[in-house]
User: What shape does this take?
Amino acid sequence: MSKANLLDRRAVVSELLRDRKGAFAVGGLGASTYDIAAAGDHDRNFYLWGGMGGAVMIGLGLALAQPKLPVVVITGDGEMLMGMGSLATVALQQPKNLSIIVLDNEAYGETGGQASHTGGTTDLVGVAKACGIGDSRSISTMAEVEAFALSLQDVMSGPRFASAKIDGANLERVLSSRDGTYIVNRIRGSIGHTPI
Amino acid sequence: MHARADTAASWPEEIFSILQRFEVRQVPYVPDAGHSELIERVLGSSSMRGIALTTEEEGVALLAGAWAGGQRGVLLMQSSGVGNCINMLSLVQIFRLPFLTLVTMRGEWGEFNPWQVPMGSNTQGILELSGIKVLRASRPDEVREVVEAGAAQAYNACTPTAVLLSQRLIGAKVFTK
Assistant: This one.
């Protein structure tokens, strides 16, 4: 089911990463990892194929370790709901270089499109704000996506959180590497760390 | 009291020194009585960052991100927290992380609260089934060498390791009205 006034997920992610410079991109398991792969493979892409609920915390660990580089977590509403406590943990640490964006289709796309809480009663922007992430906003236009893409490069003014309502179209999967050791060691290599 | 005991560092202090020596930077934790002295030391340290979690599995994911970003970490938790981590422990194998966790034990050695016993009894088994090597320290005088060995194999050999700190070492929690 696709509504005309909702954003296209691939267009959103492609815009977020179009001029990424040195940014790390962490994808939640499922469609957001395919979206990041569709935007183009990159040695600072942190693809997740499991560990549901962990994307924001992986982003936090990375952001604290590399405070001069932008880190953007791009995940889905189901993955975010499973790790909602991590928004409180992020808020307490206030990592200036961490941005989080939820691609919210109000459904569990990977398991058949079952309804998620965000289509019912849960407002993730409200949750992020109440946890203490002051810069929390909902995004509904590509102009707002562009503004978010620009702001995520600013490593002095985070953390920031956004939720973009996207259409529920099931797009063709673009498969990234699913070898975790390769993915992590490639990221480490990109910042000058040699294998043990 | 034996003269040596007056000058020797406490075992939490010895753990702190080991973590410093291994250049540990990120220390995620869920507040815990057994770890309280160590957590205080970490929060007062300039080289380590103590990161309070809402649930222990957050710490496993955090350490994966830290490692990708070039930093070592250690997860401090209680035995009940191991149960909260199970699915997230997949990351330890998938990313071949230099994973170290220090687990204070409940549900053994004079436990008062029966609710601690089921998870405490299964902590070691769950860790081992998750591919994590388990070491244990039960007396103050063995904490240093056990934690040192655990840190060495975790960080030098990327061998995921949990060190269980026995309730016998920490002392059973006393419940009074």
